[in-house]
Amino acid sequence: MNTLKLNQLLEKYQWKIKRLGPQNEKVVEIRSILHNTLNSVERRFVTEGMWAHHKLRMTDIHIEYCLFCPEMMYSNEAIELVEAFMNSTDDIYVVSPKTFQRLSDRDDPDGFISVGILPVYHKEDLGIRDDAVIVILDGLESPGNIGTILRSCDGAGVDAVIICNPKARVNNPKLIKASMGAVFTVPIVYFEHPSECITWLKNHRFHIYLADSEARSFYGNRVYGGNTALVLGSERYGISQEWYNHPVQTLTIPMSGSCDSLNVGVAASILTYEICLRKKALGGDEYENKL
Length: 291
Description:
- The protein has ten helices and eleven strands.
- By secondary structure, the chain is an alpha/beta fold.
- A six-stranded parallel sheet has the order 8-7-6-10-9-11, with helices on both faces. Strands 1-4-3-5-2 form a five-stranded mixed sheet, with helices on both faces.
- GO terms for molecular function: RNA binding; RNA methyltransferase activity.
- This is RNA methyltransferase.
């Protein structure tokens, strides 16, 4: 650790930094968010770690406050990142190693936590481009699976994720962690009922594909032209029956072993990358010729 650089940072911002004890309301609030028991602001989130904070810096997400532990600042990168947030965040707090350890779920924490508000997107906010790809999560219950899917959607280049029939909070700490920052960059829109979502998709001329382990059509045999919507269902109950009452197509991922299906997060990764690669210049004729 560059002790000199850290001391210079603390001296430079001493007018702004406040010290918090373990019973301070900010510390209590962070613990409530991390235990998923805070109901006042559903989109308030806690993030920890260098990767997630670098992602945050790429966005316009509002950060309410940050807290850090100087004794845990092991790298120049961490010190520089804290300083960047000091310049853009009004409230900065220092806590002891013991207090920080109570807030962190890491064996080797890097001493920096931020609390912010996730952006709210509405269906009217989605500028649907030609040949768009949207992933719909129907009734998914596991926040870890949702976070993993967001990460895959970010990597594949999906335009937006729709959460239909929501069962998990988007600010759930497990979702935030599993998304590896994707929850900050992928637009997420909510529909309470499948019927509303289906109507919206039809109005925007989406071809709807359902990921169904019992389908007969192999996902690799499709063209995926035009606006494409991929629907993935609940881990326990699958896709809501209402989707099957409309003109849709079903897709399956072949299983060669004894298992009859994949985890929904794994299935989403395979299908979203397949669809997006076929649509992008990275795929094109060259990709088609490899099939």
